[in-house]
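ingest -> validate -> predict -> emit
validate: passed (alphabet ok, no gaps, 111 aa)
predict: started
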Amino acid sequence: MLNKKVYVFMAVILLGLALWSAANKMWTIALMEVVIAAIFWHQLLNYPSDESVKRLEYVKHLPNPPSKVVRQYRLKHPELSLTDAIADLKGAPPLKDGKFVPPSPKKKTQG
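emit:
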């Protein structure tokens, strides 16, 4: 997975090249560059949020659920990203006001 800035940079560069190619009547190349820029833009839109990544990092020591289970869970909850769905299935605490707040460690009581 690349950095968000790389996706934006590549999409802008490819769109600039597509404009230049279209100005020079190289239509096939221009169309190809627009399609590749759209792929980069699509990747950027599906990039997980920093908070989702923090949730997944919190439970990274647990085994990943099977892909079939993840697919079924995402069908029931289409609003979730893949990262959020996996974090939910692994038992990560939910986001509070859009922020990830790990639970505080429980104090051991003597008994």
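The helical segments are 4-23, 27-45, 50-58, 67-76, 82-90.
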